[in-house]
Every structure is written in C-alpha cells, then in structure tokens.
Design brief:
Elements lengths: L4 E6 L6 E8 L6 E5 L6 E4 L5 E2 L6 E4 L2 E3 L3 H9 L5 E5 L12 H10 L10 E3 L4 E5 L2 E6 L6 E7 L11 E6 L5 H5 L5 E3 H9 L12 E4 L2 E2 L9 H14 L5 E9 L3 H26 L5 H7 L11 E6 L3 E7 L19 H16 L8 E13 L8 E11 L3 E10 L2 E14 L4
C-alpha cells in the first residue's frame, strides 16, 4: 500500500465501535494484526495456526487475546494482493461495514497500491488436497494456469426455495475482484438471524443493513447480484485461505463449504508447503556433512544420529537428515522381528540437530549443547528400516547460557515425532 488506510464502524456480531488502521509494512513482514486498545498492545500474526473455532466467522487468538471476524479484511488484502501490512485495531472485532469486503477494498484503492522491491511469495499446490464434513467438501487441485481459481457450488438443500442452488467461478488473475466479488455481503436465513439476536449478537443491525433472507427473499433489502450468497462464500474463502501467509495457486472446488472447512484446508496447505520446503532443502545440497558435524558435536558412532544438515537459516532454523538402515545396531535387540527405531533415539536425533542449530549463535562459539529438559514429547509414527528421517529444529529462545528449541521429525510428509527441548550451553572442554 502507498498510504495508511482507516476503516471505522461496528463489528458484525459484537456490535462494538472500532477503528481499524492498515499501515504499509516492509518486505517479508506479512499481515499482522495488533490490538492497540490493550496495555501493552498485543500482536497476532494473520496465520491459520492462530484460528480459534467460532461459529459463522474467522477469529484469531493468541493467549487470551482475540480478534473477531477478520475474513472480510483478509479477503480484501488477498483480492488486491497486499502482501505486507500492520493492521491496528482498537477493539475485539473488525468493523463490518455493509457485511462485504468492499469498505476495505475502496479505502485501499483510494490510498493506492505500491510495488515492493521483492518477488511475491506464492505457493503452488503440488498434490490434490480434499477436506470433507458430511456432504460439504472443499478440494484444492494442482493448476497449470498458475492462478487462484475457484468453482463454488452453494446448495442449501431443503431451504432451496429461499436460497436457490447457485454456482460461481472466479479467477483472481482476471482482475474483477473489486466489482464481481468484494461487494457480495454476508447473509443468513431469517431463523438464523433471530437465533443470533436471541444470543445477544447482531443487535445493532436490522435486515436493511445486511442480507436476511425470508420466505420471499431479502427482507427490507435487495440482492446486489442474483447469486450474491455464493459470491460471498468466495469472499470468505479468499480471506480464510490468505491465512496460510501467501497467495495459493490452485483450482479450488467447493460444495456447501464454510469457514470450518476453509480453516482445515488452510492447515493442510501449510502442511504441504512445509513438506515441499523440506524436500527442496534436501535437493539443494549440504550445509554440513558428517565430518563438519563431528567438529561441533562430541557424539560418535553409534550415537551420532545426524548424517547431514541440508539447511541452516542463521541461528533460527535447521533441517537435517538421518538415514535409517537395517544395519543400525539398535535393531538387533529392539523388536528384531518387526524393527522399529526406538522413540528415545528419534528424540536424541532431534536434540542433536537442535544442538547444531544453537552452535551457530555467536555467543555459543566454543560451547556444546547439553540436554537439560524435554517437554511436549509426542511420538506420532513408527520409523522403520529404509526410512529417511527428516529433522527440523527451530529456535524458540537462545540466551548465552541456555537454549530452547522446538523440534520435529518427519518421514516424507508424515510427522513422526515432536518435542520442545531445552539445553544448557557448556564449554566444550568440560566434555
């Protein structure tokens, strides 16, 4: 964005007055919300991992801090391809305007959109992903067109006399988000609106303010499009999927889908993104081979459980590999009839990669990491001969004397184990 954007108004469900200011942000900042009405202010990254389940909306939560109904704002950012922004909010819920993404779109277009000196981050779905719940379904399919494309089929079943079955296709590259999608408003059946009113929600609204659909169509209102409900479903889908942190290039097919399936799809896309990233790291080469590892770690055969490190991002993150063969000495006595790698050794392999990561920090030069404690240890999948164990370590905190690392181990795209590991840094000569 070229300038600050301000949107004011009441939240859709809670009805509290709020001011939302969208600030331009630097490259690689991403989309971050900030509750400025709290002391101190609390920031919540716009990530599907921060979604907490609420009915009929998308809510972000970190600790006890929540930000309600972010989907319309996120949809505007996705539709206009805004990659970096700091969104400051002085209340628990974003302003709803008319229940569409249009109030945000108009303000952003008025401020102007500015290119930044970096390529856009996008993700191309490489393998089909399908999520289902009852009759509802949402699928993401690889798409040669390198576009976000969606075909949405909205079917209200027995309520079809009021909301007829309707479909809408949309391709983001065509540039018609502003006119064809963003004006579509949130909607509800009359009995759904009455149930919300009984629970004390939406009491500031009348049917003239949003789409409430009765037996004869919208009450005290009119459709902006003949198929406005399905178009609003695409508004929500775009906003919810933008919580993966970038634009997703795929062909989406949706039937009776809503926020819950959107969130599940976002988490599965993140899982595929991470698996692809690890695969690409394996193909790029070696940051450390076993000889370099031995210069840092005191471990030797048979207790050296990291074969190579394929990627290190400064002292923040590392990816390593342990190739599990039938010749491992522990298979002789650990379920020899059905060989399984001992879980404690999987944890040890993760800890060794964590120690290698912490060794990259300048103040840890000449020190080695000694295991201090384990927390949140989970063994998810057995590891057997022939598997390639892909290890991942991410620094949580690293001081001069201690380090805290979040570790995971994968076989392919399946999570095999995870743990949070704390280390004490000691002088190498103490070994």
């Amino acid at each position: 964005m070229a300038a600050l954007v301000t949107v004011r108004g009441k939240g859709l469900l809670l009805g509290e007055e709020a001011t939302c200011t969208i600030h331009p942000a630097p490259v690689n900042h991403g989309i971050v919300f900030e509750r400025v009405d709290l002391n101190p202010p609390v920031q919540i990254p716009a990530s599907v991992r921060n979604v907490t389940q609420r009915a009929r909306r998308t809510t972000l939560k970190v600790g006890t801090t929540v930000i309600e109904t972010v989907e319309h704002c996120m949809s505007a950012l996705a539709g206009l391809r805004i990659d970096n922004a700091l969104i400051k909010l002085n209340g628990p819920e974003l302003p709803c305007g008319d229940g569409s993404a249009l109030p945000y779109v108009e303000q952003i277009l008025e401020a102007g959109i500015e290119d930044q000196d970096a390529p856009r981050r996008v993700f191309r779905v490489s393998e089909p992903i399908v999520v289902q719940e009852g009759e509802a379904m949402l699928a993401a399919l690889p798409h040669d067109g390198d576009q976000f494309a969606v075909l949405f089929d909205l079917d209200y079943g027995r309520h079809g006399n009021r909301i007829k079955r309707q479909t809408q296709s949309f391709v983001l590259d065509h540039g018609d988000y502003r006119s064809e999608i963003s004006p579509a408003r949130t909607f509800s059946l009359q009995e759904e609106a009455e149930a919300l009113w009984e629970r004390g929600m939406c009491r500031h609204l009348t049917p003239a303010d949003v789409l409430v659909i009765g037996e004869d169509g919208p009450i005290d209102n009119a459709y902006r499009f003949e198929n406005e409900p399905v178009r609003h479903k695409i508004v929500d889908l775009l906003g919810d999927l933008y919580l993966v942190g970038c634009e997703v290039l795929a062909r989406f097919v949706a039937y009776k889908s809503g926020h819950a399936l959107n969130h599940r799809m976002g988490l599965k896309i993140l899982k595929q993104m991470e698996a692809n990233s690890r695969r690409e790291a394996l193909l790029r080469g070696r940051e450390m081979d076993v000889r370099q590892i031995q210069r840092i770690l005191p471990h030797r055969y048979p207790m050296l459980l990291v074969d190579r490190v394929v990627e290190i991002e400064d002292d923040r993150k590392a990816i390593g590999v342990k190739n599990v063969s039938m010749n491992e000495p522990f298979f002789q006595g650990h379920y020899p009839g059905t060989p399984i790698m001992p879980g404690v050794l999987i944890v040890e392999a993760m800890a060794q990669l964590g120690g290698l990561l912490l060794s990259q920090k300048l103040e840890h030069t000449g020190k080695i990491a000694v295991l201090l404690s384990l927390d949140r240890v989970k063994l998810r999948k057995p590891v057997t001969p022939g598997d390639q164990l892909i290890l991942e370590a991410e620094a949580v905190r690293a001081g001069a004397r201690t380090g805290n690392v979040k570790c995971r181990a994968f076989v392919g795209s399946s999570l095999a184990a995870e743990a949070q590991i704390k280390f004490m840094m000691v002088d190498a000569e103490q070994d």
